[in-house]
Design goal:
The protein is mainly α and 142 residues long. The chain contains five helices and no strands. It has a domain at 53-141. The relative contact order is 0.13.
Length: 142
């Protein structure tokens, strides 16, 4: 009996439901929404946390630039100085250039996606200090 009553109320509920499809679609809005969803998915591929407040675009651009300088100065110092060593314990003392490049290309997007604004300030500061140290070592021993 309970099943029949439930079935009766279900049928009457569906009878009131309007399932007509609108005749005109706003295709420009659909494309715009689709692009917004794709952009959001692209930006959040490597996000494991929800950083609040997210890093500013200016901080991420600075991070790419300062890391490129760190990469260039590190590779130059390792190739031109026979007794210079890499300070990063992941890479070891005398890494090849491709190892340094690979580490930067793997780690940087993850850091950018999972760091908040304040964490990016510290990260950029630390990499800036590393670049200054690299330049000091190059100037001293070159």
């Amino acid at each position: 009996m309970k099943t029949l009553i439930l079935l009766f109320f279900s049928v009457t509920t569906f009878a009131e439901l309007n399932i007509t499809i609108p005749q005109e679609f706003n295709y420009k809005q659909i494309k715009k929404d689709y692009q917004l969803i794709k952009d959001w998915e692209y930006r959040n591929k490597l996000r494991f946390t929800n950083p609040e407040p997210p890093p500013k675009q200016q901080q991420i651009k600075y991070s790419w630039r300062i890391n490129a300088l760190d990469l260039a100065t590190t590779i130059y110092a390792l190739e031109s100085c026979s007794f210079c060593r890499e300070g990063n314990p992941i890479l070891g003392g005398k890494p090849e250039a491709y190892e340094v490049i690979a580490l930067k290309l793997i780690v940087l997007p993850i850091i950018h996606q999972n760091n908040n604004e304040y964490g990016m300030i510290w990260y950029n500061f630390i990499v800036s200090v590393a670049v200054v140290n690299n330049l000091y070592v190059i100037n001293r021993y070159d």
